[in-house]
Amino acid sequence: MSGPILTRRQGLGLAALAASASAMGGLATTAIAANKPSFLTKIDFKNPEWNRDSYARLDMDLDPTKEKIGWFRGKVYGVRDNEPVRPLFILDGFSFVRCKRLEDGSYRRMLREIGFYRDVKTGEILKTWHNPYTDEDVRVVPIANDPFNYTISAFRQPPPSYGGLNTEKREPVPFLLDWRYGPDDTVIVSTDIHLFYPNALQPDKWPRESAGAFNRVSEMFTYIMKRRDLENPDLTHVKSVGQWSRINPWLPWMLMGQAPGHISYFCSFGAYDSVNDIPADIREAARAMDPKWLAAPTEDYGPSLSSLENYARQQTPAPVPVGWVPPQPPAPRTLPGDKG
């Protein structure tokens, strides 16, 4: 069978259309290429610019039209002297982050995050929690940080100021992280931060919520990713999984006051492909609080505060019962035959 016969004029007309379409396609491809974020992909652990680009690709999507949806989940433990560490509750949360490229090549990370506490045994979202240290029921306050922004550059940035409370200054040094090759063609990187700064919840105003005049907070992160993803120039975001640990004073809503001890978070983290991947109960709980929690910021604003500073701005001091004193750990144990 033969196809339709074209006249020469018709053939030339279609050829012209094809050429025009090809040219337009080339222009579109050029425009897309011009708008595509540029970043380094050749692995060089000692290059600050490669560290900047690679860490930014882990933490967010360099394409500003896209959002990265992060997740974190794990247990929170109470730590006191003279007794075993105690599981208190489960933390289950997520974040939405967007990238903004700055003129000097740095990246501005624009993020909001929310986290809910779950019952250790049932997994249900907690609205109240029975504090085993004080033997009372307390109202649970979710993590709700909007925003928590910072800059990723070729130089280490100052630590978070938490609304001006942390005034620590550091000399700029090259941004070099602790990278290493892992098994099965993976790459691993670890980061940490250790802070000691004035508490927004001062004991004279917040006797039941404040753990003291200063906050001592440490956070440790480990990311694991595929080497081929890190080297792929088409990936503006590199997927990873990892571990996050945080050492923190007692949470203010636990109403522990200046009781000896602290809490420790031990969580896993990664990224969701879609908002529908977020567990339905915490997704809808976040939506009920405000639909904004299901989208990343589109503008850079502040201040960036942790849940401790947000508590001071959003809550009111709890009443102090007559005769109340902060709970104390048990007395030291003695070994058999120990006469003291």
Automatic annotation (TrEMBL):
Coiled-coil ranges (or none): none
Signal sequence, renumbered to the chain: 1-33
Source domain of life: Bacteria
Pfam families (UniProt xref): DUF1838
Keyword Signal: yes
Keyword Signal found: yes
Region Disordered, residue ranges: 312-340
Keywords per UniProt: Signal
Bias (Pro residues): 318-333
Protein name from the UniProt record: DUF1838 domain-containing protein
